[in-house]
Amino acid sequence: MVFIDYYKTLGVSKKATEKQIKSAYRKLARKYHPDLNPDNKEAEQKFKEINEANEVLSDSGSRKKYDKYGENWKQGEAQEKAEREYQAQRQSQRHSQRHSQGQSTEQEYSDFFEAMFRGATSDAANGRSPKFKGQDYNAELNLQLTDVYTAQKQVLTVNGSKIRLTIPAGVENGQVIKIAGKGGQGVNGGPGGDLLIKFVISNHTPFKREGNNLYSKVDLDFYAAILGGEITIDTFNSKVKLKIPPETKNESKVKLKGQGFPIYKKEGEFGDLIITYHLKTPTGLSEKEKELFKELQKMSVR
Prior knowledge:
Layout: H1 6-10, H2 18-32, H3 41-57, H4 60-69, H5 73-98, H6 106-117, H7 120-125, E1 137-144, E2 152-158, E3 161-167, E4 176-179, E5 195-202, E6 208-210, E7 213-221, H8 222-227, E8 229-234, E9 239-244, E10 253-256, E11 273-280, H9 287-301
Parallel strand pairs: 1-5, 7-11
Antiparallel strand pairs: 2-3, 4-5, 6-7, 8-9, 10-11
Helix pairs in contact: 2-3, 4-5
C-alpha cells in the first residue's frame, strides 16, 4: 500500500511510549540500513518508510496530529489554522464596526478571506468546515528495461483499493506520472489527493539507452573488417544482417534507423540503434598464418 501506517511500520501499538518507539526504530534501522543491504531496493524502500514513521511519531506534536487525523494529518493542521484565522478576523471585524463610522460588509470580508485561503473560508462563512484536498501519495514502481519496451498493464494496491494501470511503452527511468484523485481522501468533502508514481528502470541488457536511442558494441572479425563481408547482429527484439564494407576501421559506427527504443506515447515510432564495431585482433595464429602476415607487412612497406 502507498499509504503507510506509521505504527505498523515500526511494529508498535498506538499506545507505545516514546522510549518504545525509539527502540523499535533503532532495531529496524539497523536491520534495513542500506550499508547492510547493498543493491536491495526493497530494503532501501523499507528504510525510507521507517525513517518517515520515526520522524512523525517521535515528535509529540506531529504524533498528536497524526493520531487525530490519520493519513490526512497535514491537511487537518491546515484546516485548524484556517478556522482559527477566520475566527480571529471576524472578531477583529466586529470590533472595528463598533468603533468606526464606516461599515464593512460581510461580503467584502468574505471575499478578502477567500482570496487568502483559496476558498476554504467561504465554507466557514456558511457554517461549514473548510474543504481541503487529500494528501498526495508517492510510490515507486521497479521495472526492467525489457518490461517497458512494450505497453503493459499493472495492478497497484493503494489504501486498500486496486488501481489498474496501463504503462505506455518507452517510459524513462525516473519519470513520474500522476493519477488524479487516487491519493488520500479529501477533508470535509474536498477532492482526493493524487497518486504520483516514479518509475525505477533497471537495465540488464547489452544495450545502453539514451532517450529513445540504443547503443551497442559489436565484435568484428579482423578478416571481415579487411575484406568486407556480412554479419548477423542482435537488435533489442530481433536479429538483422549487416554488410561490412572492406577496410572497415576499428570503432566505426553505423546507425540502424528505427531499431531503437519506442518513443513514449507515440505508437509505432522508435529511436535509432547505433552500433560501434570493435575490431578483434586474431590470436593463436599458426606458423603459416604468421608467415602470410609477414609477407603482407613486407608488401605494405614497399
